[in-house]
From TrEMBL:
<feature type="domain" description="HTH tetR-type">
    <location>
        <begin position="2"/>
        <end position="64"/>
    </location>
</feature>
<dbReference type="InterPro" id="IPR036271">
    <property type="entry name" value="Tet_transcr_reg_TetR-rel_C_sf"/>
</dbReference>
<feature type="DNA-binding region" description="H-T-H motif">
    <location>
        <begin position="27"/>
        <end position="46"/>
    </location>
</feature>
<dbReference type="InterPro" id="IPR039536">
    <property type="entry name" value="TetR_C_Proteobacteria"/>
</dbReference>
<dbReference type="Pfam" id="PF14246">
    <property type="entry name" value="TetR_C_7"/>
</dbReference>
<dbReference type="GO" id="GO:0003700">
    <property type="term" value="F:DNA-binding transcription factor activity"/>
</dbReference>
<dbReference type="Pfam" id="PF00440">
    <property type="entry name" value="TetR_N"/>
</dbReference>
<keyword id="KW-0238">DNA-binding</keyword>
<dbReference type="InterPro" id="IPR009057">
    <property type="entry name" value="Homeodomain-like_sf"/>
</dbReference>
<dbReference type="GO" id="GO:0000976">
    <property type="term" value="F:transcription cis-regulatory region binding"/>
</dbReference>
<dbReference type="InterPro" id="IPR050109">
    <property type="entry name" value="HTH-type_TetR-like_transc_reg"/>
</dbReference>
<protein>
    <submittedName>
        <fullName>TetR/AcrR family transcriptional regulator</fullName>
    </submittedName>
</protein>
<dbReference type="InterPro" id="IPR001647">
    <property type="entry name" value="HTH_TetR"/>
</dbReference>
Length: 196
């Protein structure tokens, strides 16, 4: 059974994503949570709207850590097939976290400690998983030796650009469909990294 505190956090995330932190009032959050606007009920659970934003980000990070699907050990040995799965999973993960991306890009300039949490616990985890897979694929002989840390960063940047632009502008870069983008990226990576 969802507690009032959990419900407040759950409803705050889409409000912050849609209206922005400044554009979302405490009364808006209370109304969405089924509490009487103006009652101050939110303050029974959070000292401030800022504390609620931090709790919402913590909730998102915990949910991401629970459901993260980029499991290096489960990837196929074929590097091209594994690259395709990695690209698809990362795009899916970014799509699933669209609301948090909106909040991060719009509202966290003034809250670097919250941005750092996202960078460390979500982006850092994805980068580490990619680098781990690249290291393993090099060791197994499927990929040629390369700077796996830099390639993991570049791979994440290339993959994340597509859904972020789609989330922010409502259309993908150059209006190219996701399947074509995934195929092109996997093709480029395979040609550059797969061992001869």
């Amino acid at each position: 059974m969802e507690t009032a505190k959990e419900r407040i956090v759950r409803v705050a995330i889409p409000l912050f994503a849609e209206r922005g932190y400044a554009g979302t009032s405490v009364a808006d959050i209370q109304r969405a949570a089924g509490l009487a606007p103006g009652s101050g009920a939110l303050y029974k659970h959070f000292r401030s709207k800022q504390e609620l934003l931090a709790a919402a980000i913590d909730w998102h990070i915990a949910d991401f850590e629970r459901t993260s699907v980029l499991l290096v050990s489960a990837l196929p040995k074929d590097p091209v097939a594994a690259l395709k799965i990695i690209v698809e999973q990362l795009i899916g993960s970014l799509d699933a976290n669209a609301q948090l991306i909106r909040i991060t890009l719009r509202d966290l300039d003034a809250r670097p400690e919250l941005a750092d949490k996202i960078a460390t616990h979500m982006l850092g985890a994805l980068h580490d998983a990619m680098r781990s897979w690249l290291d393993k694929a090099v060791t197994d002989g499927g990929l040629r030796p390369h700077d796996t840390q830099a390639v993991a960063a570049l791979l994440f940047s290339a993959i994340s650009y597509y859904p972020v632009v789609d989330i922010l502008l409502g259309q993908p870069p150059a209006k190219v469909e996701p399947d074509r983008t995934i195929a092109a990226l996997v093709d480029l990576l395979a040609k550059g990294l797969v061992a001869a």
